[in-house]
UniProtKB/TrEMBL annotation, chain A:
PANTHER family: ALKANE SULFONATE ABC TRANSPORTER-RELATED, MEMBRANE SUBUNIT, NITRATE IMPORT PERMEASE PROTEIN NRTB. It is a multi-pass membrane protein. GO terms for molecular function: nitrate transmembrane transporter activity. It comes from Oscillatoriales cyanobacterium SpSt-418. This is Nitrate ABC transporter, permease protein. NCBIfam families: ntrB. Belongs to the binding-protein-dependent transport system permease family.
TrEMBL record, chain B:
Gene3D superfamilies: P-loop containing nucleotide triphosphate hydrolases. Pfam families: ABC_tran. It comes from Oscillatoriales cyanobacterium SpSt-418. Belongs to the ABC transporter superfamily. Nitrate/nitrite/cyanate uptake transporter (NitT) (TC 3.A.1.16) family. This is ABC transporter ATP-binding protein.
């Protein structure tokens, strides 16, 4: 009987052949090939409109675009890398303008409940407005399509940063504020040394969402412009070159992913174990 | 032996008789939700009288422990002395001056550590020094910072962030931060509450040692009878809440420096311990009985 107490190593269940990640990768590849096969067959058998290219044709064209990204044969014929640089520059400027408004406003509203309540109706009403709705207004205000694009990017990327900054600043752990108070720290010192660092993770996560939105908006904002990946999409649609459009969609998605990852890194850098 | 690197101009280093605390007639009522809107929403809550007419005189450079059943209002009282919370009636005087808010003359060691997670150990302590002594040369600030890091036995961990520290190490940073600004009064809210017995004992010895080196007025909240007996000159026993009062103040006459293992050689040690145990169990029993009655 006493032997029962001594623990015998539990019988190892037979080792799984693949771990979760490997299984997921295999499933992903399976789904991707099913999708490509369906697309290929659909295009060849005339299931779609004739302008819809086959998967193999698209992959071939995608590769030509990717292989030589920086050629420049005049304003309407540029490599995808140059187009991206133009778009990224616009997104960066618009996003910087938006953040330069959102962060200070978020700090002020986070510190003052009165201002926060007073400004809230503006935020609630303007936030859900589609970027397309801002375009005509931007043109009317700026009379310039380049500035209008920046305006649209800026105004749509304000809200997540503004709201997150306000939340972060007004929800600093009271323990940190009590430390500052018992040390007799001035208001300014409390804001710069305690409140802002404590709110930094919220602010950066707001910036991350805002940047995602700014990148999302670029295609719409570049309807009116020349150059840039958004312009390219509209231009290639006029040329009925669907493979180029699909290429652009993939590239836009990949760049968006990359930007998001960069901000993800920044987020872990500012959070110092406050989260996770 | 430590050298005092503090400049002559800081008030607490010049006046060694500073640090008396006088608590007179302090009551604290937490007001419930009673507005019309609350009544309409049926979410009113009654007012809660946490402390009732607390009177306590603490002479400078005495070590006072507050002990009492959980939830009786010990933290409330300490926060009032710290100036973080206002008494509903009555007042607290520090060296004859009425307390109207927190200030660096009263260093606080928080129960929840309250270290800034984005600052390293060194930065947390230096932030405190820099805030309290803004005109002090940086080299001297660093010197003081290092001195207190060594004092609490954290040398080598200067550049770690709080999430890389154990609970006991965090608590030591909290203690070093409070000591480094050289307050004449040190307020500690269950500083060892969350620690295991060994670390706890080690830090208690360390507090005893530090206190021998630089005398201060200390108010320590604790749940541990042994801790109170090891460290205090006086032990304040509080009754259960609501409307908690001071039941009795015990004098602890053992000579210093005290050694944990030698304390129980004094006959009075056992008397004091028994008296405190009697008080705490009696209070706890009433609380428990009330709880049982309420749940029947
Ligand atoms: N902000 C508040 N609003 C309402 N009631 C409160 C508030 N803070 C504390 N109380 C009540 O006041 C009483 C005393 O609380 P306090 O935190 O001072 O107790 P304590 O003696 O420190 O307890 P413990 O030993 O468990 O830390 C408790 O009954 C608590 O419910
Ligand atoms: Mg408490």
């Amino acid at each position: 009987m006493a032997n029962n107490v001594i623990s015998t190593p539990a019988k190892r269940s037979s080792m799984p052949l693949l771990n979760t990640n490997q299984k997921a990768t295999l499933l992903f590849l399976l789904l991707l090939s099913l999708f490509l096969i369906f697309w290929e067959i659909g295009a060849r058998s005339g299931l779609f409109l004739p302008i819809m290219p086959s998967a193999s044709q698209t992959i071939k064209d995608f590769w030509t675009w990717i292989a030589d990204p920086f050629f420049d044969y005049g304003p309407n014929d540029k490599g995808i890398g140059l187009l991206l640089l133009t778009s990224l520059r616009r997104v960066a400027i618009g996003f910087l303008i938006g953040s330069a408004i959102a962060i200070p406003l978020g700090i002020i509203t986070g510190l003052s409940p009165v201002i926060s309540k007073a400004i809230d109706p503006f935020i609630q009403i303007l936030r859900p407005v589609s970027p397309l709705a801002w375009l005509p207004l931007g043109l009317a205000l700026m009379r310039d399509s380049e500035k209008t694009a920046l305006f649209v990017i800026a105004i749509t990327s304000i809200w997540p940063t503004l709201i997150n900054t306000r939340f972060g600043v007004s929800n600093v752990d009271p323990a940190y504020l009590n430390v500052a108070r018992t040390l007799g720290a001035s208001r300014w010192r409390t804001i710069t040394k305690v409140i802002l660092p404590a709110a930094a993770p919220s602010i950066v996560s707001g910036l991350r969402i805002s940047l995602g939105i700014a990148w999302l908006v670029i295609v719409a904002a570049e309807i009116l412009l020349s150059g840039g990946i958004g312009y390219f999409v509209w231009n290639e649609w006029n040329n009925l070159k669907v493979t180029s459009i699909i290429t652009a969609i993939l590239v836009i998605g990949l760049v968006g992913l990359l930007l998001d990852r960069l901000f993800g890194l920044l987020q872990t850098w500012v959070s110092f174990g406050q989260r996770s | 032996m430590r050298t005092n690197t503090r400049p002559e101009s800081t008030p607490s280093s010049m006046d060694t008789t500073a640090g008396s605390v006088s608590i007179s007639n302090v009551t604290k009522v937490y007001f419930g939700r009673q507005t019309l809107a609350d009544k309409l929403l049926k979410r009113t809550s009654p007012d809660f009288e946490a402390l009732s007419a607390i009177n306590l005189e603490i002479e400078h450079n005495t070590f006072v422990s507050i002990i009492g059943p959980s939830g009786c209002g010990k933290s409330t009282l300490l926060n009032i002395v710290a100036g973080l919370s206002k008494p509903t009636t009555g007042e607290v005087l520090v060296d004859g001056q009425r307390v109207t808010g927190p200030g660096p003359d009263r260093g606080v060691v928080f129960q929840s550590y309250a270290l800034m997670p984005w600052m390293t150990v060194a930065e947390n302590i230096q932030f405190a020094i820099e805030t309290v002594y803004p005109t002090m040369p940086v080299a001297q600030q660093k010197e003081i910072m290092q001195e207190y890091i060594n004092l609490v036995g954290l040398s080598g961990a200067e550049r770690k962030h709080p999430h890389e520290l154990s609970g006991g190490m965090k608590q030591r940073v909290g203690i070093a931060r409070a000591l480094a600004i050289n307050p004449q009064i040190l307020l500690m809210d269950e500083p060892f509450g969350a620690l295991d017995a060994l670390t706890r004992g080690f830090l208690q010895d360390e507090i005893e040692r530090i206190w021998e080196q630089e005398r201060k007025t200390v108010i320590l909240i604790t749940h541990s009878i042994e801790e109170a007996l090891l460290l205090s000159d006086k032990i304040v026993m509080m009754t259960r809440g609501p409307a908690a009062r001071i039941a009795k103040v015990l004098d602890v006459p053992f000579p210093r420096p005290r050694k944990r293992e030698e304390l129980d050689q004094y006959p009075q040690y056992h008397e004091l311990k028994a008296e405190m145990e009697r008080h705490l169990t009696a209070e706890a029993r009433v609380v428990e009985e009330a709880r049982v009655r309420a749940s029947v």
